[in-house]
Amino acid sequence: MTDNRRAAKVRAIRWMKGVLVAGSVAASLLGTQLLAERAAVETPPAAVLPAQSAQGPAWQQAPSRPELELGPVPTAAAPLRPVARSRSSR
Amino acid sequence: MIAQSERTMIEPLTSTGQPGPHPWPTHQFRAMGSQIQLWLDGEEAQANPFFRRVEVLFRRVEARLTRFSGHSELSRLNAQPDAWVPVSALLWDVLQHALRLARETGGLFDPTLLPALEAAGYTASFEELAQRRSAPAGVTRPGCWTEVRLDPERQAVWLPAGARLDLGGIGKGYTAQLAVDLLASAGPALVDAGGDLVAGAAPRDFPGWPVAVASPGGEAAPDLFHLWLAQSALATSGIDYRRWQQAGEPAHHLIDPATGRPAESDVITATVLAPEATTAEAWATAALIAGRERGLALLLERDLAGALTGPAGRTELSPRLAAHIVWPVL
């Protein structure tokens, strides 16, 4: 009888240990995912313009598609004719 | 900055979709080692007197802030380290901007790097430098902007020994901003100060001034992108143009405060759009010196409108800048 009680106690402790380990792993995974989601919200990705070839005037170049699409952005049917260009000091 | 509603007004410049002539009077001259060009949305006769006043303004500020003349106010200040030196309202104001931006950029933009710049060989104006094979090395003591002291009561400046100021880039942006403010009394204006663009109000019938950011390097390369510029400034720092040889090694004018040597950056040009010119200028320099990864992180963390272009021509934009681009269509 005493042996049976002792065995039942050991099984109960093992079961509780199992529950605690599984719970701990699940909580850890959930926390990691939440942190990743928060980081993704806090640090918006940069858009990327593809490298352009150095041939032809600017407004005749058909730009290839960027790697990342952003939300609503202003569009122009054709390149503007810029009045000035920003560049490193001249 | 351009309001969201205004961005929907974009139209081709002519009914045929082909670029037409710009209707605005313009004027250009050289000052501060750069080509300066002005545009004013108004009548030519009305614009010309203002253009002349702006040219005088650039020459007066240059005379005070140039480091290439021993007679300038800046050179006289630089020659008196370890002493309180009263300065003019102009030098005081530019220095206040410079030290504030040094703080904000964590010292990536540092106005006290003149000794390091001279050690790298930038000892004469860039036009003269192109004629020289090499230049004497100077003493390097980078990053001591935190030791510069200001006395607002006396409007006096104290420079620590070994620190000398270079206000070239920020002084040019500061003057371009003054020029736009001066021209504003005659109408909407745009100033191109050697590639740094400062815009006042948008010209009539346009959402802003149509401007581009050029690709690094030659004129033949297509523009990186186009945008309308109004009530803001667009500055580009780059290591693609002001380059020279120093002791057989390639050198350029953007000094890394951490090393006191020309920055070894994986960014060729950095462009920043900001509400005013000195901020755009300082952050463009800071982002380039920081390099691609850290520079982009800085732009994103601080929600700055910026773009970094690497050696292979790949350009990365912060979302804040991407929202202003009208071509190419993102």
Instruction: Name the average pLDDT of chain B.
Output: 86
Helix content of chain A: 40-55%
Instruction: State the helicity of chain B in percent bands.
Output: 25-40%
Count of extended strands of chain B: 18
Beta content of chain B comes to 15-25%
Q: How would you describe the shape of chain B?
A: globular
Share in β-strands of chain A: 5-15%
**How large is the radius of gyration of chain A?**
31 Å
Q: Name the shape of chain A in a single word.
A: rod-shaped
Regarding quaternary structure, how should these chains be classified? Answer: heterodimer
Helix count of chain A, per DSSP? 1
Secondary structural class of chain B: alpha+beta
Sheet having the most strands of chain B: 8 strands, antiparallel
Encode the helix/strand succession of chain B as letters. Answer: EEHHEHHHEEHEEEEEEEEEEHHEEHE
Order of helices and strands of chain A: HEE
Task: Give the helix tally of chain B.
Answer: 9
Structural class of chain A: mainly alpha
How many distinct beta strands of chain A? 2
Detailed description of the structure:
The complex is a heterodimer of chains A (90) and B (330). Chain A is mainly alpha-helical. Chain A has 1 helix and 2 strands; from the N terminus they run αββ. The longest helix of chain A is centred in the N-terminal third of the chain and has 41 residues. The radius of gyration of chain A is 31 Å and the shape is rod-shaped. In chain A, 18% of the residues are buried. About 24% of the residues of chain A have low confidence. Chain B has an 8-stranded antiparallel β-sheet with strand order 1-2-6-7-10-15-16-17. In chain B, α6 runs antiparallel to α7 and α7 crosses α8. At the A-B interface, β1 and β2 of A face β2, β8, β9, β10 and α8 of B.
